[in-house]
């Protein structure tokens, strides 16, 4: 795996852990209002997303005829003024979960993701093959990999907002 990508994945995950590790389980599951996710749900969504990206990249690599597409500005995903509804299969649980349970899920999804990336025999295919993203359109597979940490950065900002709304002391 590309060292820069690995560094971004590690740095972003460390930032996420820093935001959640000291929360009580009740703070972790608190919702600012009925229409918002809890921090636990945001983190569960991140774990589900990371695992789904493994499938997307694997499917993309198996595509026979994949035309190259222009590089997209995937950093648009950081704009939190644009709400992007999660597909049903990435909707988090409504159950009460502990910080430790979610930390384990996040560790597992990251290990699966990095292990999967390490099994890709020809990484050059990642820039050549594409798969359609529901919000961004046709994306090269290497941009899907970058999207893991960019998506996580987006949700770290959401977690900070939720913490302020439920009045978690920093």
Strand order of the largest sheet: 1-2
Mean pLDDT: 92
Supply the number of helical segments. 6
Helix content: 55-70%
Describe the structure.
The protein has 170 residues and is mainly α. It has one domain (3-166): dinb family like domain (Four Helix Bundle (Hemerythrin (Met), subunit A)). Helices cover 56% and strands 5% of the residues. The chain contains six helices and two strands. It has helices at residues 3-20, 25-29, 39-62, 99-118, 125-128, 141-165, and strands at 130-133, 137-140. Strands 1-2 form a two-stranded antiparallel sheet. α3 (39-62) runs parallel beside α4. The longest helix is centred in the last third of the chain and has 25 residues, at 141-165. It is globular.
